[in-house]
């Protein structure tokens, strides 16, 4: 099957991407779905900082790669052995395909699926193979088992979660990464309870989703921190009780607003310095959760004694510590009830040919969540 898809051939090209053009739309050959796989027509895909981190080279991946990992679409065909999906089903795609049988999966930690992690690094589907190729027959790597910046894709059925067809695709797509990661970090990883004070460092799609999760969880004080004034204003509209400009005084501002430090702090930027600030802004006995992914060579420095003397917790959260088949439906239910207005995160719609300019906007902090309609 012939499809059009946006391929990243080389990481680290300089911004502005409108000039360097790291993403090139190519005519690709897509294999039919193999056993346990689905052919999906992509109806909406979100632009995430995790994609940007691959483009700028701070999160190395195998090249060339069809980029994109946050998406929703419609099943066109189910491969051999797939009984849980049928043509016409609407699905959200999660960027960790959980095998269901490795030790983390068996213990309810699908985000840490061992085969899923290995194949994501290798640029293959869960089966270990690649289903997308260039016109000359050479392979194109899959991005996190999804490769959403394409008209149609083949994915493992383990990457898909069915959703009701009345959920708009551009909203549904956000549940595959921004909502899973941000809301999951709040409710699963941090365990925010009614009355807790929460600080959210970084107000991109994931950070604002975390803010919405904190509101839904009943947090009494929510402090939002970012460098972009427009995002701070949006955070106030979405339920932040205090909005703080990032900088030298941010930690003290959080501690003042929360009476000595937040009980729960969520860091979403992917910067070791910001993570250190989030830890410093966390109160005694509190929990700091990070979902950001800094460059692998970066190191974190914190006062080690505070982990014991103040009974502090520092923990990572990947995919919001979610089980997608469990958490996507319950987060969608919260959205339907009006408690997760994730539609407020949408910044605009673009086409495949507009992706480079759209990533420029994301890099400059001018957009929260843009969606591409292939």
Description:
By secondary structure, the chain is an alpha/beta fold. Helices cover 28% and strands 26% of the residues. Strands 3, 5, 6, 9, 10, 17 and 18 form a 7-stranded mixed sheet that branches. The chain has a 6-stranded parallel sheet with strand order 13-12-11-14-15-16, with helices on both faces. α6 (178-189) packs across α12 (324-336).
β-strand number: 18
Oligomer: single chain
Q: Might you state the CATH topology name of the largest domain?
A: Quinone Oxidoreductase, Chain A, domain 1
Q: In whole angstroms, how far apart are the ends?
A: 16 Å
In total, the number of domains comes to: 2
> What is the SS-derived class?
alpha/beta
CATH architecture of the largest domain: Alpha-Beta Complex
Spans where pLDDT lies below 50 across 5 or more residues: none
Structure annotation, total helices: 13
* Annotated CATH homologous superfamily of the largest domain: Medium-chain alcohol dehydrogenases, catalytic domain
Indicate the proportion of strand residues. Answer: 25-35%
Describe this structure in a few short sentences.
This protein has helices spanning 17-20, 49-55, 103-106, 114-122, 169-172, 178-189, 205-217, 229-238, 250-257, 272-280, 306-309, 324-336, 355-363; strands at residues 2-8, 23-30, 37-46, 65-66, 70-78, 90-93, 132-134, 141-142, 152-156, 160-163, 197-201, 221-226, 242-245, 262-267, 282-290, 313-316, 346-350, 369-372. With 374 residues, it is α/β, with parallel strands linked by helices. It has 2 domains: 2-176 and 341-372, Alpha-Beta Complex (Quinone Oxidoreductase, Chain A, domain 1), CATH 3.90.180.10; 182-317, Rossmann fold.
